[in-house]
Amino acid sequence: MEFMDAGGSVYVEGNDFGYSHRYDPIYEYFGCTYTGDGNSSFNVDHLYGEAGTMLDGRHLRYMYGQGPDVYVDMIESNGGTILFRDQINAGRLIKWDGEDHDYRSMHSTYVFGAMIDQTPPDTKDDVMAAYMGYLFPSVVVNLEPDATTIPQGGTLGYTATLVNKTDQQQTIYGRANVYLPGGSPFPGNPVVAPTQVTLNAGATVTVHYSHPVPAGAPLGVYTYEAQVGVPPANLIDDDLFEFEIVAP
Fold it and tell me: What is the CA radius of gyration of the chain?
């Protein structure tokens, strides 16, 4: 847990990880809820990638009824994003980057090596590349607000830093959204339209943004989120901060 608290990325797989650890503090780091222990055999036949995720459209078979298919835990989201479901729509793979987006975790209830390759790109190599792309992002974004208390009619400002963590040039898109008190999306999203950025190997780019706050903006605590990725569905990294709008 200390490793993840410090920003580390962790992948855990195991048929009974939830069964054995669902009441332990470590389980909370994976953004999932344990929903069942599965059967003594004949649990996972097919794995289907969830729409809109990094595994969208992927389909692999599993060693159904064989050794690795014993009491495979079933999970659902508790903050995280389900990536693979099986033939009965049970959650089997999840990712989460924590409530404050400060680490990255993945939990698979099945054994990775027991997946059965289909026609490319529905292969273990392709799926593992997606895992690694999430756990070790090529580009990271960090937001530092000028202030977190903004009066009505004032200005929200922040510094966005992008870092290319690879030895190759990376071209990504960035955008930003605001969420109103209570969590609903701001009707004017995205407040920063998708913008293409090219980063040289190892490069760091820092940009300052500002937004006028309407004089009649509702009071309360808002969330500002920046995302970087490659359309349509490859989110590489994101960061967020909360700010409060108060009376002038």
Answer: 20
Reduced to 3 states (helix: H, G, I; strand: E, B; else coil), residue 4 is helix
> Which CATH number is 139-246 given?
2.60.40.10
pTM: 0.77
Buried b (16+ CB within 10 A) or exposed e, 1-39: eeebeeeebbbeebbebbbeebeeeebbbbbbbbeeebe
The answer to whether residues 236 and 229 touch, using CB atoms and an 8 Å cutoff, is yes
Position 117, amino acid: D
Question: What is the DSSP track for 25-61?
Answer: GGGGGGTEEEEE---SS---SEEEEPTTSTTTT-EEE
Q: Strands 104-108, 9-13: parallel, antiparallel or unpaired by DSSP?
A: parallel
pLDDT digits (tens, 9 = 90+) for 70-126: 999 999 999 999 999 999 999 999 999 988 878 999 999 999 999 999 999 999 999
Strand positions, DSSP E, the chain: 9-13, 32-36, 46-49, 59-62, 74-77, 81-86, 91-96, 104-108, 115-116, 139-145, 149-151, 155-164, 170-179, 192-199, 204-212, 220-230, 234-246
Residue extents of the structural domains in the chain? 2-135, 139-246
Q: Looking at the DSSP assignment, which residues form a beta bridge with residue 198?
A: 171
**Among the ranges 30-34, 97-101, 138-142, which has the highest mean pLDDT value?**
30-34
How far is 113 from 96, CA to CA, in rounded Å?
A: 22
User: Coil, strand, or helix at residue 142?
Assistant: strand
Scanning the structure block, which residue is given the tokens 């669902």?
22
Residue carrying the six token digits 């590349």: 129
- Could you say which DSSP state residue 185 is in? B
